[in-house]
Every structure is written in structure tokens, then in C-alpha cells.
Amino acid sequence: MTNPVVVGIDGSDAAYAALGWAVQDATRRALPLRIVHVREPWRSEHRDDAGGGGLSLTERSELLLAGAEERARRRAPRLEVSTAHLVGAVVERLRTESETADTVVVGSRGLGGFTGLVLGSVGLALAGHAHGPVVVVRAPEGGAGGGGEVVAGFDGSADSEAALEYAMEQAAARGARLRVVHARHTVVLAPQAAGYGPLVAGALADEAAEVARRLPLWRDKYPDVEVVESVMSGHPVPVLAAASRTAALVVLGSRGLGGFAASVLGSTCHGVIHRAHCPVAVVRAPWRRS
Asked: Where is the UspA domain (predicted)?
């Protein structure tokens, strides 16, 4: 059985942007699509407000799913689409979905988010706990994932290796170039920082050689994907955020070599999700094609 692309919807603009991205991804990679709406159990089934139109919460949820399914079928008539109306805590139910999903896709902020938040709590929590890749899609910017290259952040960690494989598959499915980015954050140790120039340049050269050494395996597995390497001096968050301006997708490992053992979602990953201009995929090791 082929694992589906699962997308969570709640009626928000960001969720519909996530739905559009998920439809395209499932179509490109010949995967089924599963549209999920999670109703939290503590919300009242019957509400007195006029906005409900006299419908129960279950009935409104079913209408939401039916509308989302219709959207998906209009965009991709041959796509295999299923829906699920689930009851429970949103993050936990989507985490359970991730156990049998190829990828879980969510919007950057849903109807439950505060206006000032760039990323909703669901997307952020799920990115650190899901069993497979999680894609966070911002609306309207980068909503459906347009043209451009795929960018993969790489630091040699197990999670970044898994992210690189996912990025390779995404690039192959899109016919896009893959840019592998390694950013070295150099700390200035003294006011006379110019004297450290040769040391920094040497370290970057060594790391560039190490990145190049790790890539042939993936080039052999995906021979049709053009791969370019970018090794830069700078903090990974602004470097990757800048790369996202012209990218279709940024792919990151959940936690890199610089993460604390107790941290589920690394600080670099957390920062890039907040600042990226395109969808961001977060991948945990191990990841393998469904």
C-alpha cells in the first residue's frame, strides 16, 4: 500500500494553501491524497451563534471536508482522494496520521492562531514530533509551491541526511535543481578579526570538501537532478531564509549537529520556518520513500 500525502484543513486561508500544495505534491509523486479535519472534543457539538447556520459542529466539519475534496478533485481529477473527520487533540491526531503518511502538510497558521503569530502552534509542534516529513505552507505567499529550485540545509547530521534524500526526491519530481546549503556561523573572537580571515577561509574550504564528499551517493541515486553546493559563512537561519526567496521548497532536518539532545525541534529549523518565503519541509531520520 502506498502511503498518502496527508493534509490537515480547518477552513483557514493557510489550510487551503496547504491543500493546494498537497494536491500538487501528490500528483507529481503519484501518491494518494488524504484530507483530514480534526475536531477537538471539548468544542460544543451545538452552538447558539448565528454563524453556525443551524448546523451542528459535526455537520459543518463534514461540509468543510466535502468542499476541500471538491477543490482537490477539480485541480487533479485523476488523483486518488480520501477524507477523514477525526475527533481529538489536533497535534496528536495528526501525529498519529504521520505514522502511515508519506508526508503531512499543514498551513502556517490556522483559525485557532493569534493574529500576531507567524506560525501556528499546530505546525510548530507537529514538525518536531511527526514520524515523517512535515511541510508547513504559508498563505498566500508561496501557497501552492511554485517554480524555483529546491533548497536543502545540510550539516552532516542524520536528520540532514534524511532531509537531503527527501529534497532529492522533491527535486526529481519537479524537474528542478537542488541547492545544498551548508552555513558556518563564525564567531568573531577579537576586535582585530581580520587576522582570522585565512582560518575562516580554510575552515570553509574543508567543509565544502566534506559536503562534496557526501553527495556522490545521492547523485548516483538521482542522476537526473542537477545539484549545486553552497558553503557560506553566516548563521544558517538568515542564509536559508534568503535562499527561500527564490526557492520552491526548503528542506531541513528536524535537529542538526548543533541541537541539544533534549530538543525535539532544532533552533535553526524553528527559525527558518518562521522566516522562510516558501514552504518548508522538516524531516526526521530515518526517512525512506513510501
From this structure: 1-138, 150-284
Residue 154 φ/ψ, nearest 5 degrees: -135, 130
Rg of the Cα atoms in the chain: 20
Which residues contact residue 187 at a Cβ distance below 8 angstroms, ignoring those fewer than 6 apart?
A: none
Asked if residues 35 and 9 have their Cβ atoms less than 8 Å apart, the reply is yes
Domain spanning 5-137, CATH architecture: 3-Layer(aba) Sandwich (3.40)
Nearest-angstrom CA–CA distance, 69 and 32 = 12
* All residues at 6 or more sequence positions from 141 whose CB lies less than 8 Å from its CB, including other chains: 277, 278
- pTM for the predicted model, two decimal places: 0.84
Helices 13-28 and 57-75, interaxial angle, to 10°? 40
Q: Is the pLDDT confidence value at 53 over 80?
A: no
CATH class of 149-283: alpha beta
Q: Position of cell 459542529?
A: 57
Measured CA to CA, the distance from residue 196 to residue 187 in angstroms comes to 10
Contact between 171 and 196 under an 8 Å Cβ cutoff? The reply is no
Taking only the tens place, the pLDDT of each residue in 168-191 is 999 999 999 999 998 875 554 555
Indicate left, alpha or beta for 179 from its phi (over 0: left) and psi (-120 to 50: alpha).
beta
